[in-house]
């Protein structure tokens, strides 16, 4: 039995079931998610390999080959139509057109599940999904349960990497108007032992780690590569549970009455569903989501334990990216387009712009140093990377007006995002490609010997589709200096 079969057997059926990696009912043989490709704007539903099976990741790979794809819809498997799509603006606006949040790049979070390739939903800051018009999700003080499988190594201290029940207006309508799983290390509201990250419940105007508004000693830091995070709540009763999604059971971090501050008993749940954002569309958090469900009714611990046993058996495992830059190392980045295979990404000597230029053993030491980078944890998302100039300490490769240059960052979140690049599978099969952390369809590209972040087709010259896959593929080499 799969998770939603088990919840149904326990009398608390799924009313939303989201996964980009597998079916969550043994009879489910439908679509899991939809991707949209940059080359022609067309969409494709990605389904399962068979009833109750794993995602057909090969269908995504062939549809998105040589271009880039975004995840546009995460379908609800419950039959209630509670699909998740690009989150609209609310109390806060997102970075995309019209104040919407960004969509996730479709191949940004590769894994294997039961030996099958699959992709998770990579939430960089600014990314979010939502459904404000749901069916069957708990409202008011009605009981519900939920779990999510997350990457316990991908998180930050922004508000708020949530999955669960939120406001239908995308605005903060007061204490008790939300009930979600939260994961990350923000300490503005609640926290537990250690430095985080923690699994908490976002109940609106508060991430709760237990009965107290701030510290609760029973909520530990947890960072399993694959993390099962559980929250459930009913009238004056709620719980937080979590465990390693690769093995073992769930531990209970809290099980008791509603918080000892006003506004959370009774609850005022509104029944929208969010992923990767706060109730008011706060969108500065990061995380990775693989699957999750919401139920009608308060699931028993026994039901959740059976779900966790199925999750263990599903066989989540990391996949490694060959040729990826190692944090702390010095590297050079070689172009792979046929014109330019002796060219390396460097900063100019005459100005701070980046360019590609031939570097060889007979190049000057100044030229070699200008083409050498120190790989740092991503300043805007630590699960990606930033490139510090080897000869200009403290200056980082960043995009500005879509062109890459080296810069002393001003410390703003925007400058840090601009200097953050996420390595993923190469578009031409050589080396890797480097995705912009804040423009998920844009990749580091050389064009007419300048270097940009570029989409596969778009309004700038450098978005030209000719040779895009080659121009966005880079081999990480040993450093010139
Ligand atoms: O409860 C924490 C956050 O506070 C909510 O997600 C958001 O709506 C508000 O800013």
TrEMBL record:
The lineage of its organism: Bacteria, Bacillati, Actinomycetota, Actinomycetes, Kitasatosporales. The gene is abfA. One of its GO terms (biological process) is pectin catabolic process. Residues 3-317 form the Alpha-L-arabinofuranosidase B catalytic domain. It comes from the Bacteria. One of its GO terms (molecular function) is alpha-L-arabinofuranosidase activity. This is Alpha-N-arabinofuranosidase. Keywords: Disulfide bond, Glycoprotein, Glycosidase, Hydrolase, Signal. It comes from Streptomyces echinoruber. Residues 333-476 form the Alpha-L-arabinofuranosidase B arabinose-binding domain. Disulfide bonds join 4-14, 64-69, 159-160, 384-422. Belongs to the glycosyl hydrolase 54 family. The active site is at 204 (nucleophile), 280 (proton donor). CDD domains: beta-trefoil_ABD_ABFB.
């Amino acid at each position: 039995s799969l998770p939603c079969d088990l919840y149904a057997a326990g009398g608390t059926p799924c009313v939303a079931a989201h996964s980009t990696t597998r079916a969550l009912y043994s009879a489910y043989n439908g679509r899991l998610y939809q991707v949209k490709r940059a080359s022609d704007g067309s969409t494709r539903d990605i389904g399962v390999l068979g009833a109750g099976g794993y995602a057909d990741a090969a269908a995504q790979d062939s549809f998105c080959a040589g271009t880039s794809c975004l995840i546009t819809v995460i379908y609800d498997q419950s039959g209630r139509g509670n699909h998740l799509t690009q989150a609209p603006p609310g109390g806060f606006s997102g970075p995309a057109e019209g104040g919407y949040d960004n969509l996730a790049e479709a191949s940004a979070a590769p894994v294997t599940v039961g030996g099958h390739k699959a992709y998770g939903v990579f939430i960089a800051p600014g990314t979010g999904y939502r459904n404000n018009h749901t069916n069957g999700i708990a409202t008011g003080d009605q009981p519900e349960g939920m779990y999510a499988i997350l990457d316990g190594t991908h998180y930050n201290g922004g508000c708020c990497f949530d999955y669960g029940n939120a406001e239908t207006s995308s605005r903060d309508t007061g204490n008790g108007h939300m009930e979600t799983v939260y994961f990350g290390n923000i300490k503005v509201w609640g926290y537990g032992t250690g430095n985080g990250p923690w699994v908490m419940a976002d109940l609106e105007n508060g991430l709760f780690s237990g009965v107290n508004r701030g510290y609760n000693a029973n909520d530990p830091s947890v960072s399993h590569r694959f993390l099962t995070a559980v929250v459930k709540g009913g009238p004056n009763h709620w719980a937080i549970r979590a465990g390693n999604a690769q093995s073992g059971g769930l531990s209970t971090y809290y099980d008791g009455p509603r918080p000892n501050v006003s506004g959370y008993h009774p609850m005022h749940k509104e029944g929208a569903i969010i992923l990767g954002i706060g109730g008011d569309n706060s969108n500065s958090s990061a995380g990775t989501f693989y699957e999750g469900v919401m139920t009608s009714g308060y699931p028993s611990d026994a039901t959740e334990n059976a779900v966790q046993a199925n999750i263990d058996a599903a066989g989540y495992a990391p996949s490694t990216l060959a040729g990826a830059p190692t944090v702390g190392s010095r590297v050079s980045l070689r172009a792979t387009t046929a014109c330019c295979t002796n060219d390396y990404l460097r900063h100019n000597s005459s100005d701070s712009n980046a360019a590609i230029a031939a570097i060889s053993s007979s190049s000057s030491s100044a030229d070699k140093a200008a083409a050498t980078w120190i790989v740092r944890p991503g300043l805007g998302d630590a699960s990606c990377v930033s490139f510090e100039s080897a000869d200009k300490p403290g200056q980082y490769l960043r995009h500005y007006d879509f062109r890459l240059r080296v810069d002393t960052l001003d410390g703003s979140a925007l400058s840090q995002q601009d200097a953050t690049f996420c390595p993923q599978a190469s578009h031409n099969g050589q080396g890797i490609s480097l995705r912009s952390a804040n423009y998920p369809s844009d990749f580091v590209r050389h064009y007419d010997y300048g270097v940009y972040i570029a989409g596969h087709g778009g309004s700038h010259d450098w978005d030209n589709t000719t040779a895009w896959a080659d121009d966005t593929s880079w081999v990480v080499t040993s450093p010139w200096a």
